[in-house]
Design a protein that fits this description.
Strand order of the largest sheet of chain A: 6-7-8-3-9-10
Radius of gyration of chain B: 21 Å
Distance between the termini of chain B: 6 Å
Strand order of the largest sheet of chain B: 1-2
Chains: A alpha/beta (about 500), B mainly alpha (about 350), C mainly alpha (about 300)
CATH class of the largest domain in chain A: Alpha Beta
Largest sheet of chain A: 6 strands, mixed
CATH topology of the largest domain in chain A: Rossmann fold
CATH superfamily of the largest domain in chain A: P-loop containing nucleotide triphosphate hydrolases
Order of helices and strands of chain B: EHHHHHHHHHHHHHE
Number of domains of chain A: 2
Structural class of chain B: mainly alpha
Oligomer: heterotrimer
Mean pLDDT of chain A: 86
Number of strands of chain B: 2
CATH architecture of the largest domain in chain A: 3-Layer(aba) Sandwich
Number of helices of chain B: 13
Helix content of chain A: 25-40%
Helix content of chain B: over 70%
Mean pLDDT of chain B: 89
Largest interface: B-C, 48 and 51 residues
Structural class of chain A: alpha/beta
Number of helices of chain A: 17
Low-confidence stretches of chain B: none
Largest sheet of chain B: 2 strands, antiparallel
Radius of gyration of chain A: 25 Å
Shape of chain B: globular
Chain lengths: ~500, ~350, ~300
């Protein structure tokens, strides 16, 4: 079998001790669709960034068609025939398809319309069925059509090795089938595709071989014939951690009879930014004194669910009731003081040019009209800095000067220490070192024991299992089941489906 | 190549040093331009300094001239903190001037303190209204406030133009575009022992109130957060509409008061160029002061001084008044650069 | 109303429209690349000054026009440096530039009082200038009129049909995407801003070489600000700028000639361009309109690679 791309012993470390790629070996054959399968944070994107020249490896070598190469930038990668279709498109919404393609490909020509370019595009349309209306503006196209434009751009640059980074996250099921058709067609003439994904079923649907990566290390490579869901699941998730499980007492669903429901979510359907339903008909209750864990791979509706509960996204259908009143009867400031929110994107939750102390008031604005700068706030800030080991001289430092991890600490500290009745925590330990993560976990338990209800969205299975009283698994916008955290195997199965 | 990295330890001393260097460089460059134009810069500078700051008459003129600039700049400080780049102070001054003139003549029968208070209220409302229109456009449909306030400026100036050449023209004014003098009950009282009207003092008080508002009240906090990170503002429940309208009303109303000061305190009538660009100077003043309300007051007085100096130089040396704009522009550009260097340092 | 009066009227309109057209064509390019330049008034005045003094010294009118353009380009390069490289606030930088232009031209213009300079004379193009009514208006004028009228469609073509124009527009819409596509965002912006300054300088020369026989301080009298409004009114499209500048020109001429006829205040006509621009801004800021004919999406925002 002809090897068009080979990665040998590549490692990449990031500051803070994070090892994104650990002595990775990976090979790509001619004419194959090769899936790189793993959870978020497993190291897939880093590896692809290295291959595409966006990042440099700390050690290891890359070989393209047998020759050792050094890829210092995407330009080098493109010259070697490697093309990447990113998850987030670099298209200009107000320009037409043709203009976007011309911009990427036709830099040295005089006019936008050129016969040569037109011919090349037509050839692609015919060969791969990638047709789009060249004269429509990008904002008028569906996500699937936009992706086609990105693919055309990449192909016109002469790519014979295509890397797709989570391409189906923005597509409808129909569009996904279309994409898979394209992939099968594309590799027929000897080109190759690397397909990055976290979805088992898709990897199985279209790949010739599947490589599983977990926590920076390659677990193994299997051919399509050898692979099935169980095999892949056991490769993706380490389910031998039954120690944590045994320590949990059986806090089943029975004892909730005497608990106070803080929140009702009824038949909630929420659309994402592209108008597609990300949360579908979800219902649940949150009780005081519990942590409800929401397990699932990122991109299955967690963000939209969290934002809807936090009052930042209007649901399409359904209702949410907070502390006995409908969510939309609250003014947002009041809601925020009752419902804490640690968002996925920390930059939503801080004002970078204000001091740490000033940022501590951000979510408690409801009952303060004067005295926004008094001693209590300063003390609160100092308490937060101390308890969460924030690396900062004092509370008067501008938040923007802190490192990403420390900004996260500030947000988590603020939302937990102010003891909101309800807390929605999305990936609260993301970017944090181990000691702080443990501190956050214990503080979440403290919060719960004080009577608050916590919704914990996380990809860290250990964290979910340790902290949750109940676990709901979300997949493609639907909550499948409520499971006890002891039932690890079931949780894992539900996630990967 | 070169890169800018954020500077760590920015002490007040350093900032003052950098700004002073910028000011001196501006003086040097402007001195050079003066030489090219055939004037002696050293003579000009010393004359100006003597007559503006050391001379009591010059000094009181300075304060008077800085009045409208100061009030507008204080309002702009708030608006710019919210990230709303209104340049509409000039037009708002004109509208405030219109309102105070109209009030002065229509309610001339009222006793002085009440008439003055009415004029203050209506001038504020007039200026605030003039800012409210671009404000609501920005708040609801995100219309660019730079362009909208610029257009409003021109319309306001034209309205005054129409009034003083038309229905409000002083029949005894020899055809000049001026209204009759306002009744003495409508004139602002003077600060005791000076011939400076009290509007700058009102400005001083307002500056202190605004500083307090920004630092200690919730609305001040909301303005700062919105200007810093609109996403975080939304996250915390701050209403962008409320913030935008608040800052526009404050900045418009204050500029309107500035207009009243010119009519009721300085000119004692409405004239066609009641503001020779005070509103635009306010933008520079507040930028120089880095949006700090108290520094803005000092900065406005400096600018008032420059204007008086320009007058003085014109009388004595026939230096055209517009030349002072060059100096202001130089100072502004150099301060912009200085501000950059105070925040970042150049590294290879 | 006889033919004579109509022709006189149209000639006045072209004289009013031409500097507006030139300045706004330049600013359209600048804003299409994402940089708003409030310094047009200042650059026009500097252009007027350098044109006058060059014409006076050298006697060569076309050299004077060229020098005026270069002066405008030079001044706008300061604005470009401040707002593109130093990433200073574009509004403040542009205002400083405007002030600078007004100030320097006022200062140096002192020396021009009482002087005369050769002016741009009218050129009669054979045959074409004999066309009734519009003949003398377009083809028996100073050459800048025709140049500006031909420049508009040419600049439209370049902006929308060539790769250069596409690059400029891309940089102004989405600098990240342009950067990824390999375009030097800063370079394109510099070029656009300086080009805009060049045309503004030439627009300024029109005042001192055609419209006025002698030097008057502040002779542009706010036309630079009208040009800014015109850019928006024409939705950043050179062809619409052509139409818009002539509409504004009509309004300017009308305010003096026809005020008596309709007994309306001249200020109303003067205010119309601003009012129309304001309404146009309101209409075209809505989300719907923005998608169809909006401002360049990245207008006014400095581009920092990798910034949030």
């Amino acid at each position: 079998m002809d090897c068009v791309l080979e990665v040998k012993n590549v490692s990449k470390r990031f500051p803070g001790g994070i090892i994104a790629n650990d002595h990775v070996n990976f090979s790509l054959f001619r004419g194959e669709v090769h899936a790189l399968l793993g959870e978020n944070g497993a190291g897939k994107t880093t590896l692809m960034n290295i291959i595409y020249g966006i990042q440099q490896p700390d050690e290891g070598e890359i070989y393209v068609r047998g020759r050792r190469v050094v890829i210092k930038s995407p330009k080098d990668a493109i010259r070697l025939g490697i093309g990447m279709v990113h998850q987030h498109f670099t298209l200009i919404p107000n320009h037409t398809v043709l203009e976007n393609i011309a911009l990427a490909v036709n830099g040295s020509s005089l006019f936008i319309k050129s016969n040569v370019l037109h011919e090349k595009i037509m050839r692609l349309f015919n060969e791969y069925g990638l047709s789009v209306d060249l004269n429509r503006k990008i904002w008028q196209l569906s996500m699937g059509e936009r992706q086609k434009v990105e693919i055309i751009k990449t192909l016109l640059r002469g790519a014979s090795i295509l890397i797709f980074d989570e391409p189906t996250s923005v597509l409808t099921p129909m569009e996904t089938y279309g994409l898979f058709d394209f992939m099968r067609n594309f590799v027929k003439n000897g080109s190759s595709i690397i397909f990055i994904t976290h979805k088992l079923d898709e990897a199985l649907a279209v790949s010739h071989r599947i490589t599983v990566i977990r926590k920076g290390r390659i677990v193994g490579t299997v051919s399509r014939e050898e692979a099935n869901e169980q095999v892949l699941t056991s490769m993706m998730f380490d389910i031998s951690n039954s120690e944590t499980v045994n320590n949990k007492d059986m806090r089943g669903l029975n004892t909730q009879v005497d608990r106070v429901p803080l929140m009702y979510v009824n038949n909630l359907t929420v659309e994402n930014d592209n108008g597609i339903e990300a949360v579908k008909n979800v219902s649940f209750r949150l009780f005081s004194g519990e942590i409800l864990g929401i397990a699932g791979i990122t991109g299955n509706g967690q963000r939209e669910l969290a934002e809807a509960i936090a009052g930042l996204r209007k649901p399409k259908y359904g209702s949410i009731e907070i502390l006995g009143k409908p969510l939309n009867s609250y003014k947002l400031k009041e809601l925020r003081s009752l419902v804490g929110f640690i968002p996925e994107d920390p930059f939503l939750a801080v004002a970078p040019n204000l001091s740490i102390a000033e940022n501590m008031v951000l979510t408690n604005l409801y009952d303060r009209v004067f005295n926004i700068n008094d001693n209590k706030i300063l003390q609160f800030a100092q308490q937060a800095i101390m308890q969460f080991s924030v690396v900062a001289r004092d509370a008067s430092i501008r938040v923007g000067l802190l490192s990403g991890g420390n900004i996260q600490k500030i947000i988590v500290a603020r939302e937990i220490l102010r003891k909101p009745k309800i807390l929605v925590a999305s990936y609260p330990t993301r970017g944090l070192d181990v000691p702080t993560s443990l501190k956050v976990r214990s503080m979440l338990k403290w919060l719960k024991n004080n009577g608050s209800g916590v919704i914990l969205i996380s990809e860290d299975l250990d964290e979910l299992l340790e902290l949750s009283d109940r676990v709901a698994v979300i997949s493609k916008g639907v909550i499948k089941e409520f499971v006890s955290p002891n039932d690890v195997a079931k949780i894992v199965t539900l996630i990967s489906n | 190549m070169f890169k800018f990295i954020p500077r760590e330890n920015v002490t007040l001393k350093f900032i003052i040093m950098i700004y002073s260097i910028a000011f001196v460089v501006a003086l040097v460059i402007y001195g050079f331009i003066l030489m090219v134009a055939g004037f002696n810069p050293i003579l000009a500078y010393s004359f100006m300094f003597n007559n503006v700051f050391l001379n009591p008459y010059g000094f009181s003129n300075t304060i008077i001239r800085s009045s409208a600039i100061m009030l507008s700049a204080l309002g702009l400080a708030i608006a710019y903190k919210a990230g709303i780049f209104t340049i509409g102070s000039e037009g708002q001054i004109y509208v405030g001037a219109i309102m105070s003139t109209w009030t002065a003549f229509t309610f001339a029968f009222l006793p002085s303190p009440i008439l003055l208070i009415l004029m203050i209220v209506l001038s504020f409302i007039g200026g605030a209204f003039w800012a409210f229109i671009p404000g609501i456009m920005r708040a609801l449909i995100n219309a660019n406030e730079v362009i909208s306030t610029l257009m409003m400026n021109y319309i306001a100036i034209l309205i005054v133009h129409y009034l003083v050449y038309g229905p409000w023209k002083d029949p005894k004014g020899y055809g000049f575009p001026i209204t009759p003098i306002i009744p003495s009950s409508a004139m602002l009282p003077l600060i005791p022992f000076t011939n400076i009207h009290i509007m700058p003092i009102i400005g001083l008080f307002i500056g202190i109130i605004l500083a307090y508002m920004m630092r200690y009240t919730r609305i001040g906090y909301e303005i700062k957060v919105f200007g810093d990170n609109p996403d975080a503002a939304r996250y915390s429940g701050i209403s962008s509409i409320k913030v935008i309208l608040t800052v526009m009303i404050i900045s418009g109303g204050l500029a309107g008061l500035g207009g009243m000061g010119e009519v009721a305190g300085f000119q004692h009538r409405l004239i066609s160029n009641i503001s020779p660009g005070y509103g635009y100077m306010a933008i520079i003043v507040v930028w120089l002061a880095r949006l700090n309300p108290l520094v803005t007051i000092i900065s406005s007085i400096l600018f008032g001084g420059m204007l008086v100096g320009a007058d003085v130089l014109q009388t004595r040396f026939s230096l055209p008044i517009s030349s002072i704009y060059t100096f202001e522009a130089l100072v502004l550009m150099l301060v912009l650069i200085a501000d950059l260097f105070s925040r970042y340092k150049l590294v290879r | 109303m006889d033919i004579e009066t109509i022709q006189l009227f149209l000639v006045s309109v072209t004289e009013a429209a031409t500097p507006l057209l030139l300045a706004s064509l330049g600013e359209i390019y600048s804003e299409r690349s994402g940089v708003i330049n409030l310094g047009i008034e200042g650059m026009m005045l500097i252009g007027a000054y350098t044109a006058f003094i060059t014409s006076n010294i050298t006697g060569n009118v076309w050299l004077a026009v060229l020098v005026a353009g270069l002066a405008g380009a030079l001044l706008s390069s300061i604005h470009a440096f401040l707002s593109i490289t130093l990433k200073v606030n574009q509004i403040v930088s542009g205002l400083a530039l405007s002030l600078m232009g007004v100030g320097v031209s006022g200062l140096l213009g002192q020396g021009l009082i009482g002087l005369a300079a050769p002016r741009l004379t009218r050129i009669h193009i054979p045959i074409l200038s004999s066309i009734p009514i519009i003949g003398p208006v377009l083809f028996a004028q100073d050459p800048l009129v025709l140049i500006s009228v031909l420049l508009a469609p040419a600049l439209w073509f370049i902006l929308f049909k060539t790769m250069i124009g596409l690059k400029i527009r891309s940089v102004g819409e989405n600098p990240e995407a342009a950067d990824v596509a390999g375009i030097n965002v800063d370079l394109v912006r510099y070029a656009s801003v300086i080009f805009g300054g060049f045309l503004s300088g030439i627009a300024g020369s029109y005042f001192s070489l055609v419209l006025s026989a002698a030097w008057i301080e502040n002779m542009t009298a706010g036309r630079g600000w009208i040009a800014l409004g015109l850019v928006i009114f024409s939705f950043w499209n050179p062809l619409y700028a052509l139409i818009g500048s002539y509409i504004f020109g009509i309004l300017e001429v009308v305010q003096y000639r026809f005020q008596i006829l309709f007994n309306l205040p001249t200020e109303l006509f003067s205010a119309l361009p601003y009012g129309i621009t304001l309404i146009a801004l309101a209409i075209f800021s809505t989300e719907y309109a923005r998608k169809k004919v909006g401002a360049p999406a990245a207008l006014g925002k400095p581009y920092i690679r990798g910034a949030r």
